[in-house]
């Protein structure tokens, strides 16, 4: 029986550490690499740093991480213990394996950080070097002895394997109770933070809360006396060691989509957070262990492709969860599946919203469109990328102009500054890629109604800035749904604050254009017509539909149900689908009616129901 330590008293870190980390990162693009010869940033480019509070004063980690006194208590995963740490050195971030932080990688200087054993982390608002993480695997070897495992990735997997027999036999009520305590603890530590970062934490917390009642979702089926004393019971059992690869744009929410439900259903877990924002995952797992989670049930390893390859090929890993780019996700799905693992992968998107100009409420709709398109700097897989106006061209122009004026009100700046609406893109590469696509779109004939390029932020001149950008592809003419749209701003998932506008005369045209899109994460319609909404709901192909809801991500009573090229694997995240992903069916048929010595043998095929 697991002994719990009870609720933890208020700590200075609060959820601001998680939420500010999420906010500083600002989400990033998974498809920022055009190279097909190597796996791109496995969870999309990622980066950010944690935030801590001392009393009521907040400290910016871009300053804090250069000091050996900051974070020592709030972030034990930061390594300052090596000698020689000076103003030119940055702390390294440790792995969490078998219940302990591993002190492996020394603090590094900017000159030495680019070797193959470490990966640098930069502040996207300044491009200042903040820290480094270890590459937890040098190869895709599969050592099966924990005492001789050569790499941290192998040790983490074998630690999870060792913890599995005991954890899987822990009563489901005990596992649920631990998750309930965990949910309470995260509530306690919410802290004061920006709304977008808080959304990252709270949407993840909702999945934790759903995991506290996982027992009802694991109920099996039974049938008594189905044939002459035979009883059959079918029930759900855990898989074993599961693993997750998380992206940078939601460094708290996505890990909380993964490991809480996995361990609630009796599995053990190895989590690889984004290379650019690992602190949120480490903090979340630290909190869980403070509540009494046994060592090895959840492990956190850092790294890049080599670490991922170990997870994909190690024989003890039974299932892989991934959120990120299409290129990386398809690689993970193909390699993992080829090595006999279950894989669920949420990939890219190009989400369309249709606005019925004749009856949509203008003020609220425009605010919803602006928020969905430019929130998180457009760096989220459910960001609104395309708006299709249905109606007269002149009315469409008026709507577009008002949308642009609303977008101009948004403030661009560091996520740690008050009143900021749009933070930096995750990396210079992501910024340059977005700017290139904008220019290609203009060269291809589009009208740039609002250009967010060349923006500067005082005090953060070296940051990765791109302001709200609005590109109109229709102009003076309707877009023809019969003609493929080839403009780069429409075709590419830009993962930046860039919104494309189209105008068509009818709802049928809008539906056809949306359905021609290869992605299928989400879509929305804005209208006061029940008939139009119902037609859209039934005829649109995207997996998640909002009716006057701009970002239709369901609460975790349901599952995240993207489709088409936005998903690989057959089972979705969280909800009932999540429970199905982390469990397998076992069926037991028993016969207790015969006395000892009764002949139950025979060489012929047994036939149920035959007397």
From TrEMBL:
Superkingdom, natural source: Eukaryota
Keyword field contains NAD: yes
Keyword Translocase assigned: no
Residue span, Aldehyde dehydrogenase domain: 149-588
Pfam families: Aldedh
Entry's EC annotation: 1.2.1.27
Enzyme class of the recorded protein, top EC level: oxidoreductase
UniProt-listed InterPro entries: Ald_DH/histidinol_DH (IPR016161), Ald_DH_C (IPR016163), Ald_DH_CS_CYS (IPR016160), Ald_DH_N (IPR016162), Aldehyde_DH_dom (IPR015590), MeMal-semiAld_DH (IPR010061)
GO molecular function: methylmalonate-semialdehyde dehydrogenase (acylating, NAD) activity
UniProt keywords, alphabetically: NAD, Oxidoreductase
Annotated stretches, region: Disordered: 28-50
Record family assignment: Belongs to the aldehyde dehydrogenase family.
Record protein name field: methylmalonate-semialdehyde dehydrogenase (CoA acylating)
Native source organism of the sequence: Discostella pseudostelligera
